[in-house]
Amino acid sequence: MNDCDCLALRLSDDRLQLLDQAQLPHREHWFAVDDVDTLIEAIHALRTRGAPMIAIAAALLVAVRVTMGDDRDRIVVAIERLHAARPTAVNLAHAMDGLRAALGAPDWRAAVIDCAERLFDDDRALCDAMAEYGAALIDDGERILTHCNTGGLATAGIGTALGVIRRAHEQNKGISVWVDETRPLLQGGRLTAWELGALGVPYQLITDNMAASFMAAGQVDRIIVGADRIAANGDFANKIGTYGLAVLARYHELPFHVVAPHTTLDADCATGAAIPIEQRAAAEVRGVSGAAGDLCWAPADAPVANPAFDVTPAQLITSWILDTGVFDAADVAAGALREAASAA
Ligand code: MRU
């Protein structure tokens, strides 16, 4: 197989390694993945995470299993199990569907490897295309608020929403970023802050409940987020807390953009109501686990609700920034997302 190298994934000599994102920013630990159980555990624990990244890691692992000599039946089982590893991000489902289709080729081994390698290469190009379209919307000196982590850790390239921000910074627009810490698993505080620091992009970390008051004070110019699945009508699922930001943006008359590759579109979901939302463990809300150990601040048996994602309705979105262009509500109503999805 071709070697692959990006911020959170390395493939060399047919061996796959992933950066353990659960240990960031305190420890940069890489772990080897050569079996399906290890990757499923890593996806559940968010050691590997972000909609494009889980799809690419899963596809490359299936290709690695092919190089290890697994027969077709074992590959079919691997694809089915990985498909079910996380329900909300549709990129994983699309990637596994692509591999399943490749199994129908006369030389199915070569076809599966080619399909996985193309996912990696394509994702890098998709990130660059989104970054160009998105950065063109940003004016000099803007203060941009983002949520969760949508950068190099979450993709094979420079990211989706964070890729747009990075490109605007590289264009010397003098931007700065409000980073929502993103409760409960702190992808903003741990991962986005780590990425922006390494890139030299000016940022300030805030707790999620500070966003409203910074908007009211006129200190936020634009909100840019990623997506795990975009329905045909433009509704989209993203990290819990995204919907609240969209409501706040509307009240404060601020532009609110979602940035995603066409691999995140799901034309089979007519509206956001059809998007499955992952429910996660109670312990994540009762406290926190990290490099410093576990801390539980709630009663150990406190009843908890912990949906990992929420759905933002299309009417709150200023524009959808895809790898194929920037679309507004009129474009989406005219079927732009269905059309872009047909390339997925
Ligand atoms: O639970 P996570 O950390 O995988 O959630 C990630 C997000 O919500 C991202 O915004 C989304 O996957 C887009 S990543 C380019």
UniProtKB/TrEMBL annotation:
Pfam family, one: IF-2B
Reactions it catalyzes: 5-(methylsulfanyl)-alpha-D-ribose 1-phosphate = 5-(methylsulfanyl)-D-ribulose 1-phosphate
Gene that this sequence comes from: mtnA
Protein name, per record: Methylthioribose-1-phosphate isomerase
NCBIfam families: eIF-2B_rel (TIGR00524), PRK05720.1 (NF004326), salvage_mtnA (TIGR00512)
Residues of the active site: 228
Similarity section: Belongs to the EIF-2B alpha/beta/delta subunits family. MtnA subfamily.
InterPro entries associated with the record: IF-2B-related, IF-M1Pi, IF_2B-like_C, Initiation_fac_2B_a/b/d, M1Pi_N, NagB/RpiA_transferase-like
Sites where the protein binds substrate: 49-51, 86, 187, 238-239
